[in-house]
Amino acid sequence: MALSKIQSESLNLADTFAFTGTVTGAGGSLDATTTVPSEGGAATTNLVQGLAKAWASFDQGASGHPVYTDASLNTSSTDDVSAGITKITFTSIADNSNYAINGCCQAQDASGTVFGTWGKSTTSSRQMTTSYFYTENRVSSSTPTDGDYVTYSILGDLA
């Protein structure tokens, strides 16, 4: 089957072509075992394990506003627990509670806008689970502080 018409000195782009069938030899499909080469080609990595499984960008309730999500992936809710502490719930659960959490926050304190420390809650009643985890933001003191701009991502396997 011809997919184009070649004229004497050019390709005729005015014609439209319909194609039905299967394209083969185009690299196959991606699954949980797909590996890809590094930029330099010296190593390979598992494509699925190298992707963020959930992330969000949100206001944590600074200046008396409720927590709201600016943008997200696999995040069903960000709930204000108390100053500087947010419960983040996933849309699709994780395979186990040993996923890696990355994040940062920007907050306002008496000295101006600063970046604070960010991480999972250290309170024993706020554990990481396959469905949710809690964040705590701290700026210049040991007291949790609401962040004006908070981001997070998790790496790990989904169930």
Describe the structure.
The protein has 159 residues and is mainly β. It has a domain at 54-155. The chain is built from no helices and ten strands. Strands 4-3-10-7-8-9-6-5 form an eight-stranded antiparallel beta sheet, with no helix packed on it. The chain has a two-stranded antiparallel ribbon with strand order 1-2. The two termini are 44 Å apart.
Summarize the structure.
This protein has 159 residues and is an all-beta fold. Helix content is 0%, strand content 41%. The chain starts with 34 loop residues before the first strand and ends with a strand.
What is this structure's SSE topology?
Elements: E1 35-37, E2 44-46, E3 54-59, E4 68-73, E5 75-82, E6 85-90, E7 100-109, E8 112-120, E9 132-138, E10 149-155
Antiparallel strand pairs: 1-2, 3-4, 3-10, 5-6, 6-9, 7-8, 7-10, 8-9
Tag the structure with descriptive keywords.
159 residues, mainly beta, eight-stranded antiparallel β-sheet, two-stranded antiparallel ribbon, 0% helix
Series of secondary-structure elements, N-terminal to C-terminal: EEEEEEEEEE
Give the percentage of residues in beta strands: 35-45%
- Low-confidence sequence ranges: none
| Fraction of residues in helix | under 10%
- In spatial order, strands of the major sheet run 4-3-10-7-8-9-6-5
Mean pLDDT: 75
Question: Could you describe the largest sheet, including whether it forms a barrel?
Answer: 8 strands, antiparallel
Terminal residue distance: 44 Å
Q: What oligomeric state do these chains adopt?
A: single chain
Radius of gyration computed on alpha carbons: 24 Å
Query: How many DSSP-defined strands?
Result: 10
Note the total helix count: 0
Q: What's the overall geometry?
A: elongated
SSE class: mainly beta
